[in-house]
Amino acid sequence: MAGMTNLAALMLLKAVSIEETSNGSLTWNQLCRELKLDSCRSAFSNIHKRNSNWPEIVNGEPYDWRIEYKAVFRKHFEARGTASSLKRIRGVLRTKQAKHAATPELERILSFIEKECGSQANSLDSRGADTLFDYILRNAESGGKALSLAKRDDSKLDKGLAPDDAVGIVETFWNPTEVRYGERISKAREHIDIVHFHGLSWTNTNREFLQKQLSNPDIEVRVALLDPESPFFAPYADFIDINPDVLKSKYIEVVGIWKKMLKEANAVGNSAKLNLVKYQGFPAKSMYRFDNDLIVTPTTNAKPKSQFIAYRCIKKTDLENTAYEAYLKEIEWALSSGTEVIGAH
Predict the structure, then answer these.
(1) Looking at the DSSP assignment, which residues form a beta bridge with residue 192?
(2) Residues 203, 37, 177, CA angle at the centre, nearest 5°?
(3) Rg of the chain over CA atoms, in angstroms?
(4) Residues 6+ apart with CB under 8 A from 328
(5) Which residue among 57, 195, 235, 290 is least crowded, i.e. fewest CB within 10 A of its CB?
(6) Is-above-0.70 flag for pTM?
C-alpha cells in the first residue's frame, strides 16, 4: 500500500505534537481530546492499530477530521519549530509503519517548507502549510480514497454490483472500514444481524447509527457474541496476546452498551425488536446482515495481525447455492444455539 494513509497521517501528527514539544509533553489521550474525539476513542485507536477511517459522526454531529487535524497540526508544528518538526516527520517516514508514505512528492514538499521558512523559523509559511496539508488530506484514505467512495453511485448500496461470481459475492474491501457500516445500518429496513467475537470497537464506532435504528419498531436486530465460556474463547485470547479476563471484560462492556442503547430507545417510544445471545461456535469470521446484504470479515489467522479483508454477498433468488444463503445459515445457527442475554420483546 503506497502513499499517504490515515495511519501515516496520524503518525505525522504524533511526530510534531507528542514528546519533546516546546509546549510540554502531549499524551495520546490529550491528542485525542485536542482532535475532539473524547467520546470516540475507539475510532482514534482503530486508526492507529488498523488504519481505519476517521469517524464521520461524533456525539451525533457530523465530524470533519480535516478541519480538526489541520488546526492541531499547525498549532504543534509552530510550537515545535520548523527544523525540529521536519526532523521528526522525516524520522517517522523511516519507520516500518509509515515508510510507504515517504513519496518523492512529500519529500519535495518538506524540502520546500525547509527552504522557504528557514531552518530556525517557528512559523509555518502559508504556501508550505497549504501544500503540506493539501497533500496529507487529499491522499490519506478518508481524505481521498474514502471520499471517492462516498461520491460513487449510492445505488450500489442497494442494488450491488453486477455479479459475475456464481455464488453471489459481488464486492470486496481491502479495509473493513471501507464497507461504510454506518450507511448500511441506516439503510436497513427489516433485518440487522450481527455476529462477532465481542465487537467492542465496531459497536462503539457505529453506536450512533445502531442507537437510531433501535428506535425503529419495524426493525429486528439480532446480535450473537462469542460466549466467554466457549472452548475457543481463552485459546483465541492467548493467540492474539490478550489476557482472557481482559477479553471477557470487553464482552461484558459490549453487552452493557446494548442494554443501555435499548433502554434509551425504550425511553423515547417504541423500540426495535432486539435479541442478543452468547454462542459457543468457532470464531472464524464476523458477519453482518443488512436485509439482503451480508458482509463477511474473516478473523486474522496470523501473528502479528494480518490485513483484514471483507467481502459482500447479496441475496439472489435465481441461484440455488449462494454465499449469502450459506452465511445466513451460520448466523441462524449462532442465534438459535446461543444463550439469551437480552430477550426479544
Answers:
(1) 221, 290
(2) 45
(3) 22
(4) 289, 294
(5) 235
(6) no
